[in-house]
Amino acid sequence: MADTHLHLVLTPAVRQARESPVALLLPRPCDIPPPTMKLVSYHQSLPISDPSSFLDLTGDAPRPGPRDLLVEVRAISVNPVDAKIRGGGGPGRPDGDLQILGWDAAGVVKEIGGDVTLFKPGDEVYYAGSVDRAGSYAEFQCVDERLVGRRPRTLEFAASAALPLATITAWEMMFDRLRIEKEETGVLLVVGGAGGVGSIALQLARQLTGLTVIATASRPETHQWCRRMGAHQVVDHSQPLARQVKALAPGGVDYTLALTRTEDHFDELIEAMAPQGALALIENPARPLELTKLKPKSLSLHWEFMFTRSRYQTPDMGEQGRLLSEVADLVDAGRIQTTMHTHLGRIDAAHLKKAHALVETGTTIGKIVLAGF
């Protein structure tokens, strides 16, 4: 594990005792075993059906760096990136090294680093953190304060944990990558509207812009969910999309958030878009896209990777914490709802195996959450 032990703080009484002759009988700080914590991890990437795909373990609790918060994790949610890294894709660690996954959490600040200014012990927070550090499948986690937002006061910890990663992704796609103005009009197409990112993107678009929002879904229950999340209209992405979309937006859509396998709909999306429109992706296509097809309409292509700011320590990485606090205010004002759909129980290997198996089907609605160790 990259992070080390919890910091031990001696009270004045203990400090005075250590300075007395009796101190010779007391263990020195370096002799005291570091605090341990429960965690869920694995030693090698395995199919989720394998009994060792996740293990209930204990390890040393981490110690915060100068800008870190040490958070007691109360609840987490599971994302496709978790399953991707566990399966051997993405920025995982070599087999044999413990990997702590998890990039959605809600919890309580227990300790702060020496340079922290934004939070104090006892604050309730939520965050996605950094994919390059130990994740939230553990009782304690260190996270840079700039990536952390105040937790919504009107939600339980589990409902809060459903939001961070998907919220940051959707927000950055719309407002940072596509540069949609908050009061902008036009038409937005959200492909895969019932997933985690789609569920919050629909809400942000309805609450913060003047866009007409069209979602795609393929089942009655996902159609219903998309409308609950804020879609004006819903079309079926198991059928050709362009004809359905143009029946609702004859001039084509101005913006598209492609949240599923873009290669499955690439030609249809181009046909459905208005000239000079903008397309944003989050998934790596399984096969190369013919980008020259974008040229006749002067369509622009944008990538979103929500860990860019934390990985490269960009000067504006604090925007992630700021937007999470802004969304918490929207939740507390009743304008945004949690995207939690399924609560599987406690954070342990058995429940995480079930969560990953569900995520790997690609058919989940909203977010899957777990709470408590």
Protein architecture, described:
By secondary structure, the protein is α/β, with parallel strands linked by helices. The protein has two domains: 12-163 and 337-371, Quinone Oxidoreductase, Chain A, domain 1 (Alpha-Beta Complex); 166-303, 3-Layer(aba) Sandwich (Rossmann fold). The protein contains eleven helices and 15 strands. The strands form three sheets. Strands 3, 4, 5, 6, 7, 14 and 15 form a seven-stranded mixed beta sheet that branches. A six-stranded parallel beta sheet has the order 10-9-8-11-12-13, sandwiched between helices. Strand 14, helix 11 and strand 15 (367-371) form a beta-alpha-beta unit. Helix 4 crosses helix 5, helix 4 (164-177) packs across helix 10 (318-332) and helix 7 (241-248) runs parallel beside helix 8 (266-272). Mean pLDDT is 90; it is low at 1-31.
Main traits of this protein?
27% helix; alpha/beta; 373 residues; 11 helices; globular; six-stranded parallel beta sheet; Quinone Oxidoreductase, Chain A, domain 1
